[in-house]
Amino acid sequence: xxxxxxxxxxxxxxxxxxxxxxxxxxxxxxxxxxxxxxxxxxxxxxxxxxxxxxxxxxxxxxxxxxxxxxxxxxxxxxxxxxxxxxxxxxxxxxxxxxxxxxxxxxxxxxxxxxxxxxxxxxxxxxxxxxxxxxxxxxxxxxxxxxxxxxxxxxxxxxxxxxxxxxxxxxxxxxxxxxxxxxxxxxxxxxxxxxxxxxxxxxxxxxxxxxxxxxxxxxxxxxxxxxxxxxxxxxxxxxxxxxxxxxxxxxxxxxxxxxxxxxxxxxxxxxxxxxxxxxxxxxxxxxxxxxxxxxxxxxxxxxxxxxxxxxxxxxxxxxxxxxxxx
Length: 325
Description:
Elements: H1 19-39, H2 44-60, H3 66-75, H4 77-105, H5 107-130, H6 148-151, H7 181-196, H8 200-219, H9 225-260, H10 263-270, E1 274-276, E2 279-281, E3 292-293, E4 296-297, H11 318-324
Antiparallel strand pairs: 1-2, 3-4
Helix pairs in contact: 1-5, 3-4, 4-5, 4-7, 4-8, 5-7, 5-9, 7-8, 7-9
């Protein structure tokens, strides 16, 4: 066989995700979420009807924990004010922080976790589109809810319109209550902390963060209990769809790479010689006296139990004769 001066080929390590590609992707997803949430404004009367239907259903099943929690938050500023800060800010801080932590410390797990979060967010946007829902705080006062964000607006940067900065309430869709992505995102953060935190403290935080967030969204009258349940369901559906999204993304990436590669380069890659031990064969060339099957070389007759694959006595040539002597 002809010798070759090139060293044996090696398979390079899998490409690592880079922050300068990840950051624009995440910003694009959040921009789509925010833009879609803003543009898809449901009819106000329809949203109110949906909100009242949810409230009646909860009362029938005695699930309406929103009223006692809202009364507590309204009566006790030392609870209501921190809750408003929690609702208005933590999902902007904790979720990106968990993403960065995964990217830096658990890179192998990052892509699946990020895809799960993105898929669930888009599913939530579909929910806002199909089911515009009036939150408890925007119902008529006769239903017994108080908007704590408006009540305690002097303590923070928000005004009387949701958690948007003062004067920017018109830049958000206030009828995007079903599902609650505050709860969904906090659940995602809790799962990440529980699985990859590795300490007792992180496990406590993993349980406390989504639990407190669920209480906060109801106590501030921003969501119904069923909104929180729907937020958890959306995350479950996103988890199921994430592998499918990853596979399709890989297919698209391979297709784009193939289209971008010159035809000549693809042909050379397909006809690459087999290289081993600094020797090479031409494509489809067989090693002399080598016998093959579907599963590899076939031992010849008379080969002992310790014989090398393909070390047939009939094909061994002089070696076989020497052994006979």
